[in-house]
What we know:
There is one protein chain. By secondary structure, the chain is an alpha/beta fold. About 30% of the residues lie in helices and about 15% in strands. Helix 2 (about 60-75) crosses helix 5 and helix 3 (about 80-85) runs antiparallel to helix 5. The model is unreliable at about 30-40 (pLDDT under 50).
Amino acid sequence: MIGYIIDGTFLAGLISGVPDAASAPSLNSFSSGVVSLRPMFMAPVCSDEMPHGTLGAAKSSMNLSLAVHAAIVTLQSSGTDEKVQQNNMPFEFITAHTCRMNDPSLYTVPNFGAAHGLLRTTLNDKILKVGALGPYDWGGNDGTYKLDPAAGFYPDWLTEFCKVFNSLKGPDGVGYSSSGSIACERVY
C-alpha cells in the first residue's frame, strides 16, 4: 500500500492495526483512536529527511493531511463511529480519545481558496482516492467489497467520513463541497 500512496495511485490509505517500524516513518499518519480503524496514511512532502515523499508543492500532502485529520476528529467527536457500529452489529471496536478529540476546532481546516497540493487536486477533481485491499468479503460485519455499494462497518465508516470531509469549512467559511460533492473512491 505504501508504494501506491507514494506513487500517487491513490491519495490516502486506511488500515487496521499499526504499521511496522520500517513503514511508519515513511508516511504522514493520523491515529484515529479507533483501534479497529487505526490510521489514515498519506505520502509526506519530499525533503532530505523524507526522500521517498511526494515531489514538489503541487503534490504536497500537507493540506490534505490537515483536512483529513479534522474530518476524522469531527466524525469521532460526534459519535458517528458508534452509530456506524450499531448499524453493523455484531461489530466491536475500542475507542481511546484524548481531550483534543472533544474539540474539533483545535484541528486546522485549510481554506478552500488557498488549498494547495493534493487537497487542491481533491477539491478540483471532486474525488478523494482511498486505497483498499480487495475487493474482498472480509466476513462478519467488517465489510464486503463484493457488493455494490460495499456494505459493513468499514464501508459505512468511509461513507460517513466522506460526508464530514465534504462539510469542512476553513476560516474563510467556504465549504469543501461548494464546487460540488467530493466522492471517496476506493482504489483496489
